[in-house]
Amino acid sequence: MNWKKWFWALVILDIAVVVLLAAWLFQPAKPISVPPPKKAKGATFTVYSHKEHLNTVINDYIRKKTKDHPLQYRVWLDDRVYVASKLPVFGRELDLVVSFIPKVVKGGNVELQRPEISLGEWELPVTYVLKYLRKHAPLPDEVIIDPVANRVYVALTDIRFGNGYQVSARKMDLAKDEIVFTLTIPTSAKQ
């Protein structure tokens, strides 16, 4: 085969790779339905916390849920909610950092809005990265990624901690380090 045939074969292969990559990136996302908040019956307490304490609890929960998954990540609260992981790209690991602004929504759940995403030094298109994370990240069932609306919904009221404890958010002001939750401890005693 002469060099012209090899050249055209290589061009066709390049075009096929670009078309397949574009088809994968631009495939439509499935619509997301947000579950209604669940209410536990029992004694309720108002808990005032700070970012430092919440960071410890969140990452302990994530560590337990993603223990054996190859894609590990961590979360921390600062001026925004940050999620960081390392992704292998061309034989080296790059830092993937996603940040959000939290908003407490009706029922005590949290919606993470206005995402900003970077991979190493590059800013990435939000919708495509959220699609990727929805498919490949080992997220707890209570975390719902909605790439169409560019948000992440955290169904706090669906999370059950030891002995069935339930948490619902009341206030998250990260700038003032004011985080307020309602803790419900289920009771079995009849009144």
TrEMBL record:
Bilayer-crossing regions: 6-26
InterPro entries, per database record: DUF2140 (IPR018672)
Record's keyword terms, sorted: Membrane, Transmembrane, Transmembrane helix
Domain of life assignment: Bacteria
Keyword Membrane: yes
Protein name per its UniProtKB record: DUF2140 domain-containing protein
